[in-house]
Amino acid sequence: MAVQFRRDFISHFNNFKQALSLDPVSTVSLPSNGSSKLLRNGLAVVGFTALEDFIKNRFSVAFEEIAQTRVTFDELPEKIQKAVTYEAVSSIEHQISIRKHLEHSDKLDFIQSEAEKIASTSNERGFKLTGYAFGFGKSNVSGTDVKEALNCFHVKNPWEVMTSIAQVIGLVSLPLSNSYQNASNRRHKAAHVAQADTPYSDLENYVGEAISIAISIDIVVGRCVSKISQIDQDYLSGDRSKRLGEEDFPFYLVKKVRGHWKAYLSSNLDRAKATGREKSEVVTRAEVLATGLDAALVVFDESGDVEDWYFP
């Protein structure tokens, strides 16, 4: 089932879609309406912030998952070793600087806890990893930050891989790197330019774009953690020829097609792997299939919108 950071993201964007349907926001025929403009600008800011939070939390959870595997610290990709040790120090320092409201004792607890995790990496096994290695060192997460983080996990052409996954899901057609950059620019303009007027259509399109980015980065990171858990030496070696590409991220989809619920493998959308009239039955069968591949499962609702996704 979905862990909390997925639930929070799904809940946020369900609320985001509901907000878009409200008359004060959707009054596109009145572009000069100051209240509508302010609301659309606000949605541009909180919508992008929600995606940033998801990305940061996904990497934090990944490090928790890695620390629970049998892999030794020395076996981890070198860039991950750097990210969770000396490169994480500046991120932790930044977190302290923005937590001015904390009491002295709370700041001490925070820094000592994270320092303990960094120090534990000197152990061959039984180490802990700080969750503040990626995305926590500055105010915003850029597209380049995402690319560099996934490069640390030995993913080649990360944004191209994510776009490929999103296109199979069917929510977007344009490159996700463009979608992310456009959303970032909208957020910045909405937050810092007094006369900004975020187009309603941009917000409508952003729902599918944000969900696509979240699912695709989740699938990619989850697969990489699985490779680490398996102590896949080819993957861990960092050999460029062994880096993960588009073909290395299988997942299953469950959707309703012509009155029947069907489960498809991402690499073969022409033939269903499971079919039935009851959604729960098909989801259960798809979970078994996905588990066998260490793959994610994306579940759609009756109307064709993504309802949930997770790693069974």
Could you describe the 3D structure shown?
A hairpin with a 5-residue loop joins strand 4 and strand 5. Helix 8 crosses helix 10. This protein is globular. The model has no long low-confidence stretch (mean pLDDT 94). 56% of the residues lie in helices and 8% in strands. Strands 3-2-1-4-5 form a 5-stranded mixed β-sheet, sandwiched between helices. It has 2 domains: 4-246, no CATH class; 250-310, no CATH class. The chain has helices spanning 4-20, 23-26, 34-67, 78-83, 88-97, 104-120, 143-152, 158-169, 176-192, 200-229, 233-236, 279-292; strands spanning 251-257, 260-265, 274-276, 296-300, 306-310. By secondary structure, it is an alpha+beta fold. Pfam families: HEPN_RiboL-PSP. InterPro entries: HEPN_RiboL-PSP.
